[in-house]
Every structure is written in structure tokens, then in C-alpha cells.
Amino acid sequence: MIIADTSVWISFFNFPDSSEKRAVGFLIDADDIAITGVALTEILQGCRSRKDFSMVKDLLLALPWLETTQSVWIKAGEISSSLLRRGVTLPIPDLVLAAVAMEYKCRVYSLDRHFEMIPGLDRFQPAPP
Predict the structure, then answer these.
(1) Where are the alpha helices (H) located in the chain, listed in sequence order?
(2) DSSP reduced 3-state for 64
């Protein structure tokens, strides 16, 4: 199962000819992509109209939902603490998304390179077209 970060969803929704649009479309068709609360919130906050909000919400809520449990929050704090000791600060939403991925043994699909700094995180790279 794949968890797409907000950076990928932005490309999916805004750039119909993008490689992210193709990859996410394939993952949706294959039932191999899930959504998390933190990604849902980040994506919905960027909607410019009520119509867009409703359409995006309906599409994302049709995906499998991965819950952010207490152990996920603890793992996010552990990842952050470890990175901070090395002088690396990452946004809390990305730490939580990474912790959800680790908890559920998923891969993360993101355009943000800072996910590469998270030890033990399995990343998804779509095959070239």
C-alpha cells in the first residue's frame, strides 16, 4: 500500500498531464493507495471553492483510511527527536505521515526530498513512463 504526500496530490489535482497524475491514477485503479488524516487536512485546506472541496473530499474518502493511533504519534516524536539530534527539522505533518507509513508497513510517495532523511522509511518511486 502507498501513502501519497500532499506534494503528489497537488500535482495530481492541478496538472492533468503530470507523471504524478498517471501514477496516482494507476494506484487508485489498483486499490494500492491509502489516505491519512494529516494528508486529508493538508489537501482540503488548499481547495479554492466549496465545489472543489466536496469533490476532493469525496475522492479521498473513497480510499482506504489509515488511522493515526497513539503509537503513530509516539513514533513521529521518536523520528523527530532523532532527526533533531542531527540538526534536521522536518514539518510535523510529514513526520506523522511517515510514522503512519511505518506503522502500517506502507511506502511513501512524495516529491519532497526530506522524506529521504527519515531512517527506515520505505519510499515509492513510480516506474518511468
Answers:
(1) 6-14, 19-29, 37-45, 50-61, 70-85, 92-103
(2) coil
- Write out pLDDT tens, residues 108-124: 999 999 999 999 999 99
* 66 strand-pairing partners: 36
Q: Which residues of 79-112 are buried (b: 16+ CB within 10 A; e: fewer)?
A: bbeebeeeeeebeebbbbbbbbbbbbebebbbee
Total-model pTM:
0.93
Contact 111, 7 (CB under 8 A): yes
Q: Look up residue 84 and give its three cell numbers.
A: 533533531
Label the pairing between strands 65-66 and 107-109.
unpaired
Domains in the chain with CATH codes? 2-117 (3.40.50.1010)
